[in-house]
Automatic annotation (TrEMBL):
Keyword line: Biotin biosynthesis, Methyltransferase, S-adenosyl-L-methionine, Transferase
Organism (species): Rheinheimera mesophila
Listed name of the protein: Malonyl-[acyl-carrier protein] O-methyltransferase
CDD domains: AdoMet_MTases
Record carries keyword Iron-sulfur: no
Top-tier EC class: transferase
Family: Belongs to the methyltransferase superfamily.
């Protein structure tokens, strides 16, 4: 049965909420991508909104890019940790697809690896554009189809269940850029590869990030030791020293709101 938008949002919020305490230790990919995204975002003397802020581990860096920082996340648990760090001017629990912010009040919007969890990413982009002041800029990163391809290929040799989210292809965003020219979208892709001792270490990191949520075709069957051993044997890409690597296809979207004539 398909999940409605509210149920899906609540489910993802719970997953990330449970990952709150382990998130910072596990977030290798998040660190790499957030630093790259920040390099694409000019600093401002005004307000910056962080969409999908998580526990706020990146906020000391964001604070250097703005005067005021607002954190927005679906998860109350994540925002609780963010508030405790005292880096933000305001922490707001909300859905990035429907921002509780007035139009043209924000100088910059930043969002790193949140968009892939949204049912309608085009709404997030349109909302970011709406709240930006003329001349404002947003940088939003997400994951594309092809992410964790090795992991998927290995599981496909063990069973036919879906063990990780399906990510949208690049052409979805290319089409959005054509269909919504007012957003001023520019797209940049990057392949990030991370090494892991084995598939269990990879699976643990995904779980610690709350990223093991599957939004369609959920498999609730238990996966035992023998099944994981089969996945390890089937894993297609081996690094030196017996390690494996996982590939992440990353997209950086730069959105510019034009100045009025």
């Amino acid at each position: 049965m398909a999940m409605n938008a509210l149920a899906l949002s609540d489910d993802i919020a719970r997953h990330f909420g449970r990952a709150r305490d382990s998130y910072q230790q596990a977030a290798r990919l998040q660190r790499v991508v957030a630093e790259k995204a920040l390099s694409l975002l000019p600093a401002t003397a005004g307000l910056l909104v962080d969409l999908g802020s998580g526990p706020g581990w990146f906020h000391p860096r964001l604070r250097q890019h703005c005067t005021d920082l607002v954190a927005l996340d679906l998860s109350f648990d994540m925002l609780e940790k963010t508030s405790a760090a005292q880096q933000v001017s305001l922490a707001v629990q909300a859905d990035a697809q429907s921002l509780p912010l007035a139009s043209e009040t924000t100088d910059r919007v930043f969002s790193s690896l949140m968009l892939q969890w949204c049912e309608k990413p085009e709404l997030v982009l349109q909302e970011a554009h709406r709240v930006l002041k003329p001349g404002g800029l947003a940088v939003i990163s997400t994951l594309l189809d092809g992410t964790l391809q090795e992991f998927k290929q290995a599981w496909a040799q063990v069973d036919q269940h879906q063990h990780i989210n399906q990510f949208l292809p690049l052409n979805f965003y290319q089409q959005l850029a054509q269909d919504l020219p007012e957003l001023g979208l520019r797209l940049q892709t990057e392949l990030v590869k991370l090494d892991y001792p084995d598939v269990l270490a990879l699976a643990r990191e995904l779980k610690d990030l709350g990223a093991n949520t599957v939004t369609q075709g959920r498999n609730k069957a238990l996966t035992g030791k023998q099944r994981w051993q089969k996945v390890q044997q089937a894993y297609p890409t081996h690094c030196s020293y017996g390690q494996i690597h996982a590939s992440y296809q990353v997209l950086y979207l730069t959105l510019t709101k034009q100045n009025r004539d």
